Amino acid sequence: MKVLSTAICTSLFLFGCSDNAGQVSLGLFTTKDVVIKAMLDPKITGVTCHVSYVEANLDLSDPSDMSIACRQTGPITAEQLKDVSLSKNGEVVFKESLSILFKSLKVRRIYDTKQKTIMYLSYSTKETSGSHHHSLSTVPLFNTQAWQWATELKTGE
Fold this sequence. Notes:
Layout: H1 2-12, E1 19-25, E2 32-40, E3 47-56, E4 66-72, H2 78-81, E5 91-97, E6 104-112, E7 117-124, E8 134-140, H3 147-152
Antiparallel strand pairs: 1-2, 2-3, 3-4, 5-6, 6-7, 7-8
């Protein structure tokens, strides 16, 4: 049964399947909570990202602040990296709607070939107070099984 539920969650990952790792109320007289989601990168399964953001249930305000922290939590191999986008824009690895007002949270993976580092950028798709809020976390490939792949990859300089 556990294998089946893991397979279902993995197949639904790109549609927002993730674990609520934590949820903290911002007070007794508010409907706002800080939600912390744990997300495995679907291609680089040795990386886990924790994203926190304010969830404002039944509230007219539309907060966009967020934070992200990504770490190596398992092996990172050259095989996992072979299908990763090497473009400057990278690729979206997670997307979740945050309001009925067309705001969503996205996490984009961008590979820095020069520094041999995987960058994860979380950002809001809606401008709030003149800003598109965002946060960045990095996972270096040094001392991973993918290091040889990274050192042989052309940097395009």
